[in-house]
Amino acid sequence: MRELRGALIGCGFFARNQMHAWAGIPGVSIVALCDRDAARLDDMGESFAVAARFTDAAAMLREVRPDFVDIATTAPSHRALVELAASLAIPAICQKPFAPTMDDARAMVEACERAGVPLMVHENFRWQSPIRAVRRCLASGEIGAPFFGRVSFRSAYDVYAGQPYLAEGERFIVEDLGIHALDIARFLFGDVTRITARTRRVNPRIRGEDVATMLLDHEAGFASVVDCSYATRLETERFPQTLIEIDGSEGTIRLDEGYRLTVTGPDGTRHEDVSPPLLPWASRPWHNIQESVALIQAHWAQALRAGTEPDTSGRDNLKTLALVEAAYLSAAAGSSLDPREV
Ligand code: NAD
Ligand code: 89V
Q1: Residue 64 is inside which H or E element, if any?
Q2: Protein residues with CB under 6 Å of any ligand 2 atom
Q3: What is the average pLDDT value for the chain, to the nearest integer?
Q4: In terms of residue numbers, what domain contains 67?
Q5: I want to staple 172 with a disulfide (CB 3.0 to 4.6 A). Which of 91, 152, 186, 208 is the partner?
Q6: Residue 37: is its pLDDT beyond 90?
């Protein structure tokens, strides 16, 4: 097995999960770190015993020449960093949201394709093991042909405490969280021909929208609903669970609160606990997301070694990002749109 030497840019809130996950993947080591903020850089370097530390990404990539770079910064920096990696022929992983605009995202995909380097977007929610259990069940044909789907994420969890920038942007829930739910809808039900979205802000202390309700028409000929909210106070807080409903010609699939999978088919109903494992470094309630980080990064290592395109490649993610952009346009105009025209 080829050893892979990685470098990480961005030592903030979420990158700690990425560092833990890399440490658990055989044959991969993070050999250098970069952050503009020297205190954050040193904190991460000490936690994970990485001595090579840089405050400048170009200096790090030129000196270290890693086998790949893991970009864990927020969206405004993504294009410059991905183009930097491409210019040095270094394969790159880029956190979601891939880019602030479709133009940036397309330019990043083109830069990597021109340079012949792999590019994966860290779109990890489709790697959550409960979501994969739903997909396996759907693919088995047990419930027949789907004619309705729902991907739902409703919570009142204080995400702003760990990620203060989420309260500050003009855009919030569709770009940050809806993006994951829209990607899950694509993963389960296929690509989308039309989207209708309505958004609103309930929490007066944030700038962007914290509620979104979206209707998707799929190429497969049926519709799904994707709804998300950070203004929903429930008896039991569900963060960060995505709930799924699928109705098919022969039965139904439900992924309910508490990671309970219920499948009703021609032979009756069965229940399964599809709770994600609590990895040694993980903590509740984030363990579901944390496990998906480990799984998507293991997938990247495998794809990089095999020379195959990762599932959530930059090119694939253009379709998810187009849904985000189209959702905002639809909500602003009160209309519906073909995301392929965005
Ligand atoms: P953060 O602000 O805590 O950390 C980002 C770090 O990047 C900061 O320390 C900043 O100094 C550094 N940085 C920014 N530009 C840089 C540059 N050009 N060179 C070097 N360092 C630079 O942000 P975060 O909460 O960790 O989020 C990072 C990204 O991860 C965001 O895009 C966010 O949406 C995403 N995220 C993904 C998930 C997921 O499940 N996939 C979960 C949370 C956050
Ligand atoms: O997964 C994410 O992108 C996070 C959160 C779950 C808090 O929305 O930002």
Answers
A1: helix 57-64
A2: 159, 163, 176-177, 180, 240, 289
A3: 98
A4: 4-117
A5: 208
A6: yes
| Same domain flag for 94 and 182 | no
Q: Specify the number of domains making up the chain.
A: 2
Ligand index nearest the alpha carbon of residue 74: 1
- Both 134 and 183 in one domain: the answer is yes
Same domain? For 337 and 237 the reply is: yes
Q: Would you place residue 167 in the very low, low, confident or very high pLDDT band (cuts 50, 70, 90)?
A: very high
Would you say 246 and 253 are in contact if contact means Cβ atoms under 8 Å apart?
yes
| Span 221-231, pLDDT tens digits | 999 999 999 99
> What CATH number has the domain bearing residue 100?
3.40.50.720
Q: Is the CB of 9 under 6 A from ligand 1?
A: yes
Q: Which two tokens stand for residue 72?
A: 């864990």
Tokens of 334: 């009160």
pLDDT value at 1 more than 90: no
Residue 258, Ramachandran bin (φ over 0: left; ψ between -120 and 50: alpha; else beta): left
Q: Which ligand is nearest to the CA of 296?
A: 1
DSSP secondary structure string for all residues of 221-235? S-EEEEEEES----S
Q: At what angle do helices 314-333 and 179-189 cross, to 10 degrees?
A: 110
Strands 243-248 and 251-256: antiparallel
Are the C-beta atoms of 95 and 262 separated by less than 8 Å? no
Structural element, H or E, at residue 80? helix 78-87
Task: Establish whether this prediction's ipTM goes over 0.90.
Answer: yes
Q: Is the pLDDT of residue 103 over 90?
A: yes
44 and 79 assigned to the same domain? yes
Say if ligand 1 is within 6 A of residue 218 CB. Answer: no
